[in-house]
Each structure stands twice: as structure tokens, then as C-alpha cells.
């Protein structure tokens, strides 16, 4: 698809996806960020950035839906890369309010955005939605309870909507990631196995395919991405057993 919405476009993942997809000829992108653009940041000619767009606020999501309806004609893609960055924290150190905030940042932002974008997609004749989950949902990692609960909800939402809107030409998929290979993640997880972490720019071509007409059969899935690491996989069964 040549018309794409990317929420969280200032995040490491959103920025990488936006950079790759915006280079495709004829592509138009609407991106959102919760903060204002920094002085050193500039939007490309084919990219419209909506600043100070907090997607936990229905009015911001409604504004996004109106912007998309005004600018895009025909089917479009939606890539959701919003959600609080997560350090590994024991359950006992995460208050219920903090946990709720984590869930809201990943799930509520997606739900509210789709509430206003799905009617636009239906009117436009189709669309493809890509969200992001985490391997923690499959492997039950410790110290990630709130984050894992949020990502589980993201996957369930994609499967449910894929069935509900299959007759409307809408597709919904989640990409399931290990940690991203970025300086921010490395700093927060100094003991992580970076050999199996995924560079954000390597995810963009997969997103491009899921948004394309060629992927019309792919919907309702949680698609796991892996980079092999001897250290990571040699200890797999020990970790799962715990």
C-alpha cells in the first residue's frame, strides 16, 4: 500500500519503518508522535506528522481519523508502534497504577486508534493493520508481567478483529519481536543476549509485505521473528522449564 499511517513515528521502531517505507516511490505517510517535534527533526515531503497526539485521548484519535479521511483516497495501511519502553522489573516493584499505565500505552492506544480508523478503512474499501507483540508472550519471561499482559491483549485484539472484519477487506496481524537492537535497549539490558535482538530497519520490509496486496491471505496472525543465537537457543529449554 502506498498510503500508510504510522503511530509512534518518533520511536526507534517507528522511525526506522517510516524511513524505509517513505523511500518507496509514490508513498504518502501520516505519522503521529505524543510530543512536539524537536528543532533538529524534519518531516519528509511525503510525510505528514501530527504532533502532540496522545492516543490514550479519544479526541486525538478522532483527529487522526479525520486527517486520514481527508488525505487518503482508497485502501491504506496502519502500523502501530506506540507503547511505553519496558525495563525488566520484578512484579513486586510494579504498582497497579504503573501496570495500568503500561497496558494503556500498548493496548488502549491501539484500541482507540482503530475505533476511529476502522470506519475510514471500511469506507475506503480495505486496509491492513500491523501491530507489535513480544516473545515474552510465548516464553513467559519473568520481570515482565505487565508488559506481557499488554502484548497478549494486542495479539488477541488482532485475531478478533481479523475475524470480525474479514468480509470488509480488512486484515490485522501482529509481529512478535525479541528486543530491538538499539543503543537504548542495550543500555537498559546490559546482560541481554544481543546476538538475537532485531535491528529495527530489518523489520520494515516485513511490514511492507504485510501491507501489500500480495499478503491478502495473511490475517489474524502473530508472526514470530527470530535471529539465531547459539547462547539464546542453547538455554531455551532451561528457561522455558522455569
Briefly summarize what is shown.
This protein has 242 residues and is α/β, with parallel strands linked by helices.
Spans where pLDDT lies below 50 across 5 or more residues: none
CATH-defined fold name? Rossmann fold
Instruction: Tell me the domain tally.
Output: 1
| Major β-sheet annotation | 7 strands, parallel
- CA gyration radius, whole angstroms: 18 Å
Strand residues, percent: 15-25%
Overall structural class, as computed from helix and strand content, comes to: alpha/beta
CATH 4th-level superfamily: NAD(P)-binding Rossmann-like Domain
Q: What is the highest CATH level, the class?
A: Alpha Beta
> How helix-rich are the residues, as a percent range?
40-55%
For the largest sheet, list the strands in their spatial order: 3-2-1-4-5-6-7
Order of helices and strands: EHEEHEHEHHEHHEHH
Number of strands: 7
**Global shape:** globular
The separation of the N and C termini measures 43 Å
For the record, the CATH architecture stands as: 3-Layer(aba) Sandwich
- Helical segment count: 9
Question: What's the pLDDT, averaged over the residues?
Answer: 90
Spell out the blueprint of helices and strands.
Elements: E1 3-7, H1 12-22, E2 28-32, E3 47-50, H2 58-71, E4 76-80, H3 96-124, E5 127-134, H4 136-139, H5 145-164, E6 170-177, H6 183-188, H7 200-211, E7 221-224, H8 230-234, H9 236-241
Parallel strand pairs: 1-2, 1-4, 2-3, 4-5, 5-6, 6-7
